[in-house]
Amino acid sequence: xxxxxxxxxxxxxxxxxxxxxxxxxxxxxxxxxxxxxxxxxxxxxxxxxxxxxxxxxxxxxxxxxxxxxxxxxxxxxxxxxxxxxxxxxxxxxxxxxxxxxxxxxxxxxxxxxxxxxxxxxxxxxxxxxxxxxxxxxxxxxxxxxxxxxxxxxxxxxxxxxxxxxxxxxxxxxxxxxxxxxxxxxxxxxxxxxxxxxxxxxxxxxxxxxxxxxxxxxxxxxxxxxxxxxxxxxxxxxxxxxxxxxxxxxxxxxxxxxxxxxxxxxxxxxxxxxxxxxxxxxxxxxxxxxxxxxxxxxxxxxxxxxxxxxxxxxxxxxxxxxxxxxxxxxxxxxxxxxxxxxxxxxxxxxxxxxxxxxxxxxxxxxxxxxxxxxxxxxxx
Length: 379
What we know:
Blueprint: E1 4-13, E2 28-36, E3 40-44, H1 51-59, E4 66-71, E5 74-75, E6 86-89, H2 101-111, H3 116-130, H4 145-157, E7 163-167, H5 175-192, E8 195-200, H6 203-209, E9 212-217, E10 220-225, H7 227-232, H8 237-242, E11 253-256, E12 259-263, E13 269-273, H9 279-288, H10 293-305, H11 307-324, H12 331-378
Parallel strand pairs: 3-8, 3-9, 6-7, 7-8
Antiparallel strand pairs: 1-2, 1-4, 4-5, 9-10, 11-12, 12-13
């Protein structure tokens, strides 16, 4: 196992209650989280789950009520923020409005007493890395949102810290710019070989940037794993529904022997083998029985071209859907069961006919508008 650069061990936090005499709910419930050297861990979760509180405790802006925080093997109990060798990029940029971009990026080095020549060299290197050399003489009011975020990142880079802390840095940007800056942050952190904790509520950012994802809810850490593992093997139903688009569907079910039975209120029952195989395994089994993928595609294409096969396939699909329902007992129930299968086929045909009429209406409308515009252009 690689060396842990950041370690939170049983960290808990409770803020003062809003009303006197009422205990405040804990913001963090014994969080244990380790970040390896050179790793980018994204902490994701809904608003109010404790993401930013965790980040502020690592930065030293908040003191935990319990547990310990360790950075590079050094306990941080009582250590002020400026001595922790971390750099934080805030959601609101936190740029000084009276300073130029160069002065903002130089400021943390100036507070450390670094000579002017070394400060200028460090700023020029960071500006070249972020491609903001032409912006160094501008003030924050003359910069766009993406340019301000790059200046804030440059101020963190010039310090060359052990740990970068990002507190939802892209939430104030528009969607297209957010995608570009997201890729730049990931490339920059990996190019520097830095350790980073990144807080967001956007699951797309988490899946794009992270080496590992920490999913939080109500001050608790639910799962810490790679993006693929979190997506394919969620630890809880909340993790499964929070990550991914579209969201995972959840059905009430029960286990009956080797089968998982999902029952719905309409009476339909779906059965699946417990721990059933994946689609890839089914395809491999089909090929093992002598069917090639190319031949299957040809047969499916032939079925689409032949209307008789297509109608037969629809009827078989409708019959299979009807058989899923639990048929009532008796001769009358059997007749109703068959009638339900026929009704499903008729509904499908009526729906197809409605779609054909709808698209024909649209085509006629477009042709009419084209003729009107042609007449207007001639006149």
